[in-house]
Amino acid sequence: MKKLISLLLAALLLALCLLLTACREPAVPEEPAVPEEPAVPEEPAVPVETGPDFGSEAYLPGYDYPLCYRAFDGAVKSFVYSGDTVIYSRAKTNSLTLLYYSDFSSGESFPLCARPECEHNSKSCEAWVPVTMGPFVYDDSIYCIANYQNLRPGRIFDTVLVRKPLGGTGVEMVKYLDEDPLWQSLNKSISVMNALVHRGNFYLFMTANTVSGGKPIRTFYILTCPVAGGDFRALYREELGEGTPAVLCRAVGNTLYFIDMRKLSVTSYANELRAIDVKTGQVRTLCPAGEEYVSDFWVTREGEPWLSTGRVLYRLKDGTMEPVYSVPEGMTGSISICDGITVTAGNLDPEKRTWQVLVRDFEGKTVYEGPLPNGFVAAALEKLGDPDMEVKVTNLARSWFYGDREGLVMIFGLSRNTLHMTGAVSFNLTAEKPTDTLLWTKID
Description:
Blueprint: H1 2-19, E1 69-71, E2 76-82, E3 85-93, E4 96-103, E5 109-111, E6 131-138, E7 141-149, E8 157-165, E9 172-176, H2 181-186, E10 191-198, E11 201-212, E12 215-226, E13 233-239, E14 247-252, E15 255-260, E16 272-277, E17 283-287, E18 296-299, E19 305-308, E20 312-317, E21 320-326, E22 335-337, E23 341-349, E24 354-361, E25 366-371, H3 375-383, H4 389-392, E26 393-403, E27 407-416, E28 419-428, E29 435-443
Antiparallel strand pairs: 1-2, 2-3, 3-4, 4-5, 6-7, 7-8, 8-9, 10-11, 11-12, 12-13, 14-15, 15-16, 16-17, 18-19, 19-20, 20-21, 22-23, 23-24, 24-25, 26-27, 27-28, 28-29
């Protein structure tokens, strides 16, 4: 984290230097070298080469997939929570998505743009990236999948893997996905479901229409390429039956974990948790399909899987889901798995405008139980010009919680009459009583 803060300070120094220079033209993404004519794709090789530096199974901060990464729909695309900071992307307007940084202790939030004269309200802003998936923080850089319009002459749309250095300037076009030979061969109703960056490689979880036995069929793929660029290779391929897959994924050491949450019938789900050794290509089924719907899963730094069915937390041991604890009787809400803890939040107290939460470690020991502070509500309403929350708030909703023993972060929605606001708040759990800090807000 000190390294991240140092990089951001360096960016501020750069901004001061730029004040002494003449105004320059708006930032334009760097163009890559003109690619050679792609050859006819052959069956990709397995396994993926990860390089000699990643042989250890130990957790490598900065190079391993962040444990606290979460994705959202709507105004907030996704964020990476790391200790006391958040890197995230959100839509500032319907047509403008920017990359932001938030600091928990100060509550400051600002676009990742080093141009001192920039007002961050147009596509000339260096924080502008039309994100469709990400951001992914890796090796002091931010990676995203972005969809650009009219980026290059003769092209209406481009799907691109982009890179933005933390504390640096500009956006680099790492890979044009739709020019990849394998992507082109599969480009029949491609649907990207998830992605991650881990130990030198970019992984894409997707489906495409293929043909098997003369019949059309939906096929699930995990594609990968070096994060620095290069051709895709298929790490995993599976022909699907009924249902549309919804994939959650994690990565620890040299293993990818993913779970398909398809509903197969009224009483059964796909829910197979699988692990792929990226060095050997070996695939293992850790948890077979069952009747329980798995809503979330986690893998610790030691490679131990945990699963939640909403009301019950399970430890996965020898292919069996062992129940550890459940939501207490009389308490509403579901179990959200975080970094070493779980969080269960009851219904909103309509008078106090807060939630009763239960935070426990994986063994069931209580970390915190009680109401969350709600000072952020008045702070958010003040940004609307009126802090009268008792009269003006018509709705307050939350997403799940994410964090660790020291603190939580929460995305919330707040309505006042016809206005709607989206925001983020952090909760510090280390003090005798939890404290809250409003990180940012956006009026929709």
